[in-house]
Write a structure and sequence with these properties.
- The protein is 28% helix and 9% strand.
- By secondary structure, the chain is an alpha/beta fold.
- Strands 7-4-1-8 form a 4-stranded mixed β-sheet, with no helix packed on it. The chain has a two-stranded antiparallel ribbon with strand order 2-3. Strands 5-6 form a two-stranded parallel ribbon.
- Helix 6 links the parallel strand 5 and strand 6.
- The longest helix has 21 residues.
- The N terminus and C terminus are likely disordered.
- InterPro entries: CTDL_fold (IPR016187), Sulfatase_Mod_Factor_Kinase (IPR051043), SUMF_dom (IPR005532), SUMF_sf (IPR042095).
- Keywords: Signal.
Amino acid sequence: MKRQLTIATCAAVLLVLSRAAAAGEYVALPGGELRSVMPADGKEAPAIVAAFSMRSAPVSNAEFRQFVLAHPQWQRGQAPAVLAAPTYLAAWRGAADHGALAPDAPVTNVSWHAANAFCASEGARLPRWHEWEYAAAADATRADARDDPQWLEHILNWYAHPASTPPSRMRANAPNFYGLYDMHGLVWEWVEDYSALFVSADSRTQDPRKQLDYCGGAALSLGDRRNYAVLMRIALLAAMEGAQDGGYLGFRCARDAATDTSKLKDSP
């Protein structure tokens, strides 16, 4: 009987561990005020970011393969055209086979709808823009390194490199201050509120151009090198539709602190 209980206990532990691994590692971030390129009042007020948690790395090819196996409606060729473009998972060898792509490289060519569905499958969501910006402001030792010209130069160098090969494996470099990997230099990332980044404050406007009323003209000065790298991401996301994707566009998931039930890694 004792041996049977031990076996049962071990099986239960293994099941919990496997579920935790399937859900990825989430890192707790404390939140706080953020000097955002998109001020909360459209002028200069800081954004207030509530405590939340975020996947320590983007979702990988291997993880997304497990997702489409469990949810075949998101396999290539099965997802409705309104939710996924013809380029969805274009680099994969088959509907549920990432082929020669590294299993621990970030999955790309994934639509916003598919990314959102993946996050929902593990009780999460895509990070909101201010959460992503807050997390991405950190370097290895500081919560906000954006005033360091050397760090900014390192980030900007990635934008100058041609995207001629698939993204490389994750976690090749040290994590940032919060324990997050590859916030810069590997892939672009979807955010939950991507469609609200460049829209007019007045939805009734007839001006066909996407306006910057929400963002504030002064904050969005492309002459400010401190803002340039993050503005590149905003510009990309603002140009996207939910069904579109890209060869260097991936995602990671986030959770509200109050509802996060995963095993969190404490922030420094």
